[in-house]
Structure formats: C-alpha cells, structure tokens
C-alpha cells in the first residue's frame, strides 16, 4: 500500500532548518568575550537561565549557549531569512516543565510569523562536543 503523506498531512511543512555547532568553538568565543557574548546571543530569560547554569556546571552552561545559538540559526534557516535582517533577541528558546524546548518570538516577529506560518517544532540534541538542532515550520491554515 502506497501512502502519499503530503496529501494526508493537515499542516504540511513549509520550512526546515538544521544546524550543528561544535561546543568547543562556542567555549572559545565565550572565553574570549565572556558575558558580552552571552548578552549578544541570549534574550533576558535565556541569560538568566544561563547564569543559573553557570553557577552549577560550567560545561552545561556552554552547551546551553551553543544550543540556543544553534536553535536560532535553525529557525532563521527554516524561515529563509538571514541574520542581518533579524536580531538574536527576537527569539528565546525556553523549556516546558518537562524539559521540552519551545520557541518564544518577540511581539514584532511573532506578528510577522503568524501572518505567514503555522506551528513551530524544535528539537535540540547534544553530545560531548556537538549540539544539533532542527526546526520545522508548518504551513498556516
């Protein structure tokens, strides 16, 4: 039996962004620029979470920065708009009570996004030296 998934899908995918980053590269940049780097990449809530993690575990805090950087890159790839057009602070990646990542867009980007797209799905995975993220954007109905 052949099934055409695209025809049976209520909300087809209109954007896909995938990014992988070497955690050592992020650590190098963090050591060079310190908290200024974090303030450039992270929104207020993300920055507060980073500082809490930094006080508990240095390596996990570096992976946190890497995951947020990579997720934002994946989002921009999925909507096909480059970084010069948008700011890192337009997006914050937070976690639900069970740890699932969710993407929060600032009001201006959220309005623009909701006029064009449906739901956002995000996945973040890390291994000792790498973080990989995937963002899927659904068509709006």
From TrEMBL:
Subcellular location as annotated: Cytoplasm
GO biological process: fatty acid biosynthetic process
Gene3D superfamilies per record: 4'-phosphopantetheinyl transferase domain (3.90.470.20)
GO cellular component: cytoplasm
Name used for this protein in its record: Holo-[acyl-carrier-protein] synthase
The EC number(s) this enzyme carries: 2.7.8.7
Function: Transfers the 4'-phosphopantetheine moiety from coenzyme A to a Ser of acyl-carrier-protein.
A molecular function (GO) term: holo-[acyl-carrier-protein] synthase activity
Cited Pfam families: ACPS
Domain of life, source organism: Bacteria
Catalytic activity: apo-[ACP] + CoA = holo-[ACP] + adenosine 3',5'-bisphosphate + H(+)
Main location: cytoplasm
Binding annotation for Mg(2+): 19, 73
Annotated source species: Candidatus Kinetoplastidibacterium kentomonadis
Stretches assigned to coiled coil: none
InterPro entries named in the record: 4-PPantetheinyl_Trfase_dom (IPR008278), 4-PPantetheinyl_Trfase_dom_sf (IPR037143), ACPS (IPR002582), Ppantetheine-prot_Trfase_dom (IPR004568)
Family listed: Belongs to the P-Pant transferase superfamily. AcpS family.
Annotated 4'-phosphopantetheinyl transferase domain residues: 15-114
Keywords: Cytoplasm, Fatty acid biosynthesis, Fatty acid metabolism, Lipid biosynthesis, Lipid metabolism, Magnesium, Metal-binding, Transferase
Co-factor requirement: Mg(2+)
């Amino acid at each position: 039996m052949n099934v055409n998934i695209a025809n049976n899908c209520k909300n087809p995918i209109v954007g896909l962004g995938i990014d992988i980053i070497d955690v050592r590269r992020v650590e190098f940049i963090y050591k060079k620029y310190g908290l200024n780097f974090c303030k450039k990449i992270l929104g207020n809530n993300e920055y507060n979470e980073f500082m809490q993690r930094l006080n508990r575990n240095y390596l996990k805090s570096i992976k946190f920065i890497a995951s947020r950087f990579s997720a934002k890159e994946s989002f921009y790839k999925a909507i096909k708009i480059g970084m010069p057009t948008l700011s890192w602070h337009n997006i914050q990646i937070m976690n639900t009570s069970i740890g699932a990542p969710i993407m929060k867009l600032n009001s201006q980007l959220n309005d623009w996004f909701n006029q064009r797209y449906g739901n956002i799905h995000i996945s973040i995975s890390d291994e000792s030296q790498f973080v990989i993220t995937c963002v899927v954007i659904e068509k709006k109905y």
